[in-house]
Amino acid sequence: MTQQANFVAALLDPERACPSDLYSGDGAPVQARFAIYRNNLMVSLIDALADTFPVAQALVGETFFRAMAREFVRAHLPTSRVMAYYGIEFSAFVETFPPAASLPYLADICRLEMSRVLAYHAEDADAINPAALDSVLASPSLLANLQIRLHASVHCIQSRYSVASIWAQHQADAVTAWVNPGQPECVMVFRSLLTVHTQPLPVGTAQFLIALQKQQRLLEAANAAAQADPSFDLVQVLAFLLHHQLIIDIETKAPHECSI
Predict the structure, then answer these.
(1) Cα–Cα distance between 20 and 8 in angstroms, integer?
(2) d(CA 176, CA 160)
(3) In whole angstroms, what is the distance from residue 225 CA to residue 147 CA?
(4) pLDDT, tens digit, for every residue of 94-148?
(5) Domain ranges in the chain?
(6) Where are the strands (E) in the chain, listed by range?
(7) What predicted TM-score, i.e. pTM, was given to this entire model?
(8) Under CATH, to which class is 125-260 assigned?
(9) Contact 158, 145 (CB under 8 A)
């Protein structure tokens, strides 16, 4: 094991001894200083996760959450200096963490909370002029091959659980009400101006937005959404996207058309 790898392993495992090749310039006990450094590292990373996933922590309690976060930190050190993105893998970890099995919706709550962080930090982009979309929608020849690009802050989650209601129940302005956690829900997270929104969605609208993000053409995405939800209203959804300035580009490329 290299010197650096040995140092990292000792930081993450309190049972490991302080690396023997460390020294203190002022003669202070190396073991005591290393223990403080190890504790501060772990606490700061756990605190970062608690800041990102406050509802998840509220659901399981601070003691359980911090114990779970400690296990995550030992397996997932930060790979970026931007700590806002730390915890992207946390929902996948929670999904396979045996002690959390009694709350099967916890992983999706973590996905929602991480989506809110990503939406807040998403790159800015100018919205299209609504008139440009109107002109394409009025032309059948262009409409058939229309693709829409959404703002990077848009995230859609389709869950087997009532993640939107559970998350809303833990907000400061929540109206206390009983929530059936086993009720499937879809939710959209997006940033409009400087505010991050968490919007419950009908299943058809969620499928439509996910299809657009997979670069499906507008009519294909709309047809699939209508099959999943007969009440799907394309005009209403497009009006919503335009109102919140979430459409940033439109293309009318024919299938298999390539750019040079």
Answers:
(1) 13
(2) 22
(3) 15
(4) 999 999 999 999 999 999 999 999 999 999 999 999 999 999 988 888 888 999 9
(5) 1-103, 125-260
(6) 147-150, 155-159, 185-192, 195-201, 247-251
(7) 0.84
(8) alpha beta
(9) no
